[in-house]
Write a structure and sequence with these properties.
single chain, TIM Barrel, 8-stranded parallel barrel, globular, binds phosphoenolpyruvate
């Protein structure tokens, strides 16, 4: 089995303020010893307010599928990189459901991210209804195919986040066994695009991760970290989640 360094991502969504920027950055800067990779994705306006520090990196929650031009309100991948982002979340379920992002739009956004040197954190996941109809694997395969089947070389530069919609913001975390089953499926699927890269791609779990359940999720073979929403808005909780993921 390959060693994959865990990655813990904070997705602040449209929350937070300068006070939280200070709390989170101060808490993370104070950490020492073996740490996982830590990525903070605040609203983009806060990116320049984070002090640069090797204990964490910064990411965005969304980007434009266009490189530049008359696209009012949009932010390009190049601009995000210039603002200090190294990663960008793409295809979060809130973007797919609330803003109508299709699989092909998500693929166009991944293309822009990679062209600007950003690592895409591609979110995939099924609804409760799709799970009940036993369509989980089919839905995930479609979401992954839309990005990687024509561009398998993108895989090695990507992070995948499995985020079942029924678990996001609901308190209904997937059990460690449920997460492992799906992550193993995702890794198998990734091997169809690039068998050499698949064992090294980090697959994160997202959906009501907190300081009480993170360690048991991270103990699963194919769970390589987490994408954390609500619990990332509390610096103490977020640090506890990070510390429950083994560093190098
Ligand atoms: C998310 O927003 O990606 C998420 C997983 O949220 P929460 O941790 O609040 O369920």
């Amino acid at each position: 089995m390959r060693q994959r360094k865990p990655l813990v991502v904070a997705n602040w969504k449209m929350n937070g303020d300068q006070h939280l920027v200070h709390q989170v950055s101060d808490s993370l800067v104070a950490l020492s010893g073996a740490l996982p990779d830590i990525l903070i994705c605040p609203p983009v306006i806060f990116l320049p307010n984070f002090p640069k520090h090797p204990n964490y990196r910064l990411g965005a929650q969304n980007l434009s599928e266009q490189p530049a031009g008359a696209f009012t309100g949009e932010i390009s991948a190049v601009m995000l990189a210039q603002a200090g982002a190294s990663h960008v979340i793409v295809g979060h379920s809130e973007r797919r459901t609330l803003y109508g992002e299709t699989n092909s739009l998500v693929a166009a956004k991944v293309a822009q991210a990679l062209a600007a040197g950003l690592t895409p954190v591609l979110c995939v996941g099924e609804t409760a209804a799709q799970r009940a109809e036993e369509k989980t694997f089919q839905v995930l395969a479609e979401q992954l195919d839309a990005v990687y089947s024509a561009q398998p070389q993108w895989l090695a530069a990507s992070v995948i986040a499995y985020e079942p919609l029924w678990a996001i913001g609901t308190g209904n975390t997937a059990t460690p066994a449920q997460a492992q089953q799906v992550h193993a499926f995702i890794r198998q699927q990734l091997a169809r695009y690039d068998a050499a890269a698949a064992p090294d791609v980090r697959i994160l779990y997202g959906g009501s991760v907190n300081a009480g359940n993170s360690a048991s999720l991270f103990a699963q073979t194919d769970v390589d970290g987490a994408l954390v929403g609500g619990a990332s808005l509390n610096a103490t909780d977020f640090v506890a989640i990070c510390l429950s993921a083994k560093g190098e």
